[in-house]
Specification:
Elements: E1 11-12, E2 15-26, E3 39-47, E4 50-54, E5 57-61, E6 66-69, E7 76-79, E8 85-94, H1 95-101, H2 117-134, H3 140-158, H4 171-183, H5 190-196, H6 201-212, H7 216-233, H8 239-245, H9 251-262, H10 266-278
Antiparallel strand pairs: 1-2, 2-8, 3-6, 3-8, 4-5, 4-7
Helix pairs in contact: 2-3, 7-8, 7-9, 8-9
């Protein structure tokens, strides 16, 4: 869900409003569409390279880098290579749990600085959590709980920006993104989507790029490509069939977008992914 905290994921006993997951996956299995949630998200990359859009900017993380996404912020992540192995620790702390610990704060905003000494402290805490999850032992959840509390203390004491007000202007952007994510396989166009939300086409294009970091056409093509490649890799049909199922007008359009994003054809993408799985 886009606006709801998902409690079906791995939680720590005593901290049911938090998610802590250690991922080690190949390919684009952890690629996300534009989304948001009412929770603070921290991700420490341990292996691979990740491209992401957050805080209205595109960046690339390498091992040892942290991605912090404030509550409600629109963001997207993807495997920079498309096929290599990614390993990362993801921590999602709900607004409700933060509010229970720091009741005087309402939707706090954090801005971490990589060159700050305290940034290294957060990295160390997250590495210890990853170790506890890789090699669990009796009562290790208590140590994870302690590390999470230390991370929050560092964020509030060193990286909290109380002067930043919660961004309430993205409500329509979120409706538009949700609509695209759910209807990408249909015959969508700027004209159709802009009209649906009562916006003039030129304004819609500028607005969408300002909040998403990409154009409507690029984002729609990315969503369709992710779907088509997932079907193709899972051998749910020919490349043409998968392209049409995902909303592309032809196999050629899917191939062109695959070359733009992953610098290879869908067949080569599938072959590289399979070869990595066999390594």
């Amino acid at each position: 869900m886009y606006e709801k905290f998902d409690k079906t994921r791995a939680t720590i006993p005593g901290m049911e409003d938090c998610v802590v997951e250690l991922h080690c996956l190949r390919g684009s299995a952890r690629d996300s569409l534009l989304h948001w949630h009412h929770a603070l998200e921290l991700s420490l990359l341990l292996q691979g390279r990740v491209e992401y859009y957050a805080n209205k900017t595109w960046k690339c993380n390498t091992p040892g880098d942290i991605l912090l996404v404030n509550s409600g912020d629109i963001h997207l992540t993807r495997n920079a290579s498309g096929v290599d192995t990614l390993k990362n620790l993801v921590i999602i702390i709900s607004d409700r749990w933060i509010k229970s610990l720091v009741p005087e704060e309402n939707e706090p905003f954090f801005a971490i600085k990589k060159n700050a000494a305290e940034y290294g402290n957060i990295v160390a805490c997250m590495r210890r959590i990853a170790d506890y999850m890789d090699n669990p032992f009796p009562y290790s959840n208590l140590l994870i709980n302690r590390e999470l509390t230390d991370i929050l203390y560092t964020l509030f004491s060193k990286f909290h920006k109380p002067e930043y007000a919660p961004n309430l202007s993205n409500a329509m952007a979120k409706e538009i993104i949700l609509y695209i994510n759910e209807h990408y396989s249909e015959n969508l166009s700027v004209k159709l989507v802009a009209a649906r939300f009562g916006l003039q086409e030129n304004y819609f294009c500028r607005y969408f790029k300002a909040v998403s970091g990409t154009t409507f056409h690029q984002y729609l093509s990315l969503v369709r490509l992710n779907s088509a490649l997932s079907l193709f890799v899972a051998e749910q049909g020919s490349a043409l069939h998968c392209a049409l199922e995902a909303g592309f007008s032809s196999e050629k359009v899917m191939i062109d977008w695959c070359k733009k994003i992953y610098q290879c054809t869908p067949s080569h993408y599938k072959a590289k992914l399979v070869n990595n799985l066999l390594d």
